[in-house]
Amino acid sequence: MRRFRKIGASDLPPPFPNGWYCILESSALGPGEVQSVSCLGEQFVVYRTKSHEVYVLDAYCPHMGVNMGIGGRVVGDNIECPFHQWSFRGSDGKCVNIPYSSCVPDNSRVRKWMTKEVNDNIFIWYHSEEHNIPWELPVVEEIENKELVFLGRNEFYVNCHIQEIPENGADMAHFAAIHNVNFLAGGINANKSNFAKTGTHHWKATWTSSKSTAKHIALISLTHSLELIPKVHIFEMDVIGHQIGPSYVQLHLKSKTFGNIEILQTVTPIEPLVQKVVHRFYARRKIAPIMKLFVCAESIMFERDMVMWNHKIFRNKPHLVKEDSSIKAFRNWYSQFYSENSKTFIDVRNNLGW
Known about the structure:
2 domains; disordered C terminus; four-stranded antiparallel β-sheet; Rieske Iron-sulfur Protein; 36% strand; single chain
């Protein structure tokens, strides 16, 4: 159905901006395991050695074109093709062994992707300019040292351009429009629910680009409370969100009642207008029961945005009022992740026969 949707193709920016992308959660890849991952217009083979090192290579063997992520075997630091047992080194993608041949062609290699495993996610550096130097991915120390533990996740597939999702954080007016209604009213047609008047979420939000030298980081500051009856507020918390590049958000929640909570959002383009969005939740183990409510509430709020994203078109030149200044600022900031060499949507559309 997406082929028949009026998506405003001529207005769309490139579908895959430059930056770090999560292609797999760490828990999905044990020692000696291999995964095939399709995203960003590429096919990857991702594997972990027995010494826990993670490598990401182009999936297709240069010999006969087999996808090494399907049935490939980890041998030391190498991935072995299941078809003819050609073996490729994880550190540089070079073929190092052909069991039935006395020599290995010097030019026999697959592309090796720059990889980082941090905060329980496996990221690759994707950039249209091959030798561009990547920025560092911030580490959440409380996650790395297990002070905060993993307590839940959700996963969504959204039909929109990737820019629509992070832009939501800079769209201040939408909070009152769709997120004030109590989460118990659900994600779709919330205003028609019997729970719509059982409480009101209150939000105060600001969005700014980073004042530091880290130009790839933007900040969103939120205060939240749920008003059950007039002047009776619960779930009061402060939220600082770090938008890191085009596809990764670290949300730091502080609550006097529940302590510190971390939510990590990753957005991965599966194809030009399909985004995989995952939220992972971390907190102290003692609040595990209440975290089920947090995961539920956040998922419902996200579904309300999905209703909009799944059916809207991208406006390259939207009609804005002065109160929409943060949207304009966001677009200026986000534009740094596109470059002249990026794949254009028109190219991708033509390749897909749209």
